[in-house]
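Researcher: I'd like a structural prediction for the single chain below. Treat it as a standalone chain; there are no partners to consider.
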Amino acid sequence: MKVLESTDLIEEVRNIADEFPDERYYGEIPTGEYDAGYYIRYGRVSCLLAQALGELGLSEDELGKFENKKVSKIVKTLFKKYTMTDLLWLDTVQRKHDTNHSYSDAVAFADLLFLGE
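Model: Treating it as a single chain, here is the predicted structure.
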């Protein structure tokens, strides 16, 4: 596996959000009804962040070790290079996604907070 950087994960998150902009973790359940997703659900990767981490080569077993942990914990543990802004951006996307905002809305919200876009 290549040496991972937070920018690699951000790129994968953006790619998935671009491909599935309207995807929501809990389907059509109203936003805010839930507040935690799972990296592994029903025996496979499930959330936006788990999908992106899987694309970078992390196995389901590796992801399972981090259930109920913020994505920043995974990055700080397994990635070689990251910035605080990247960690905050990723945690924000995760939080918005976990409260059933669409993939594109989660990314847009994090971009607004941390990139001013």
